[in-house]
């Protein structure tokens, strides 16, 4: 009987870990016009009470990671005031719902200088 309880408890713990993960955002991309930049992504339309956190990574002699947006409900994050024209950036986004989080999803490398569209 004692071994059954241990096995049951282990199974519950494994199940909780599996259920604790949200689906990750998809199609993470940066849209940039005239040196303004917005990080955008897609997520399941049926998801409710989901917020997002976006961070960016750049190198200044050492690798630095900063939060761009945290706890937002929109599927976009304005980066305009956070980026340098000459910097090279990687962005990542995750979904959050209470204590549950999705895996991080990274965007392709981005540079305002090289990737901004001009009108």
Polypeptide structure, described:
It is a single chain. This protein has about 120 residues and is α+β, with helices and mostly antiparallel strands. It has helices at about 1-20, 110-115, and strands at about 25-35, 35-40, 50-60, 65-70, 75-80, 90-95, 100, 105. The chain contains 2 helices and 8 strands, in the order αββββββββα. β1 and β2 (about 35-40) form a beta hairpin. Mean pLDDT is about 85; it is low at about 5-20.
Number of strands: 8
Cα distance spanning the termini: 73 Å
The ordered H/E elements are HEEEEEEEEH
Average pLDDT confidence is 87
* General form: globular
* Range of strand content: 35-45%
**Largest sheet descriptor:** 5 strands, antiparallel
DSSP summary: helix tally: 2
Q: Helical percent range? A: 10-25%
Q: Whole-number radius of gyration?
A: 19 Å
Coarse structural class = alpha+beta
The residue ranges in which pLDDT falls below 50 over 5 or more consecutive positions are 3-18
Key structural traits:
119 residues, three-stranded antiparallel beta sheet, 2 helices, 18% helix, 41% strand
């Amino acid at each position: 009987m004692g071994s059954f309880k241990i096995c049951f408890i282990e199974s519950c713990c494994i199940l909780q870990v599996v259920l604790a993960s949200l689906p990750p955002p998809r199609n993470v991309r940066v849209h940039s016009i005239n040196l303004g930049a917005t990080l955008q992504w897609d997520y399941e339309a049926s998801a409710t009470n989901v917020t997002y956190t976006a961070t960016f990574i750049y190198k200044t002699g050492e690798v630095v990671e900063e939060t761009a947006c945290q706890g937002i409900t929109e599927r976009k994050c304005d980066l305009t005031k956070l980026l340098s024209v000459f910097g090279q950036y990687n962005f990542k986004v995750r979904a959050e719902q209470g204590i549950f989080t999705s895996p991080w999803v990274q965007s392709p490398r981005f540079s305002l200088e090289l990737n901004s569209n001009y009108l």
